[in-house]
């Protein structure tokens, strides 16, 4: 009998404050496109290498950037794509 396949759950950014703002870019100088309520989570889809901000996709359909200090990230972030500020292209991964 084969071992069951490992279930891979993408990491989530869980709001540690009430109404964590989601921005259209990795910084407070970008427009706010949504919020995350305290204790709610959104899937992490990337990270900015300069600011440390997280790119998220929420169950509500809102996607954008959240500050690293407004959320707790749970799960394995090893495979999260890295981005360079001002770019939507993944940064080169180190060997």
Structure, explained:
- Helix content is 0%, strand content 37%.
- With 95 residues, it is an all-beta fold.
- The strands form 2 sheets. Strands 1, 4, 5, 6, 7 and 8 form a 6-stranded mixed β-sheet that branches. A two-stranded antiparallel ribbon has the order 2-3.
- It is globular and about 55 Å long.
Class by SSE composition: mainly beta
Strand content: 35-45%
Total number of helical segments? 0
Shape: globular
Number of strands: 8
The overall average pLDDT, rounded, is: 88
Give unreliable regions as ranges.
Answer: none
Helical residues, percent: under 10%
Distance N terminus to C terminus? Answer: 36 Å
Q: Main sheet, how many strands, which sense, barrel?
A: 6 strands, mixed
What attributes does this structure have?
single chain; 6-stranded mixed beta sheet; 8 strands; 95 residues; mainly beta; 0% helix
Question: What is the element layout, followed by pairings?
Answer:
Elements: E1 12-15, E2 20-23, E3 32-36, E4 41-48, E5 54-57, E6 63-66, E7 71-74, E8 82-83
Parallel strand pairs: 4-8
Antiparallel strand pairs: 1-4, 1-7, 2-3, 4-5, 5-6
């Amino acid at each position: 009998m084969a071992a069951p396949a490992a279930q891979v759950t993408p990491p989530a950014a869980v709001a540690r404050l009430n109404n964590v703002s989601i921005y259209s870019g990795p910084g407070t100088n970008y427009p706010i496109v949504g919020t995350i309520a305290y204790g709610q989570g959104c899937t992490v889809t990337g990270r900015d290498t300069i600011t440390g901000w997280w790119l998220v996709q929420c169950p509500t359909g809102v996607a954008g950037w959240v500050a690293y200090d407004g959320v707790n990230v749970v799960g394995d972030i090893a495979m999260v794509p890295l981005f360079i500020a001002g770019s939507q292209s993944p940064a080169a991964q180190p060997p």
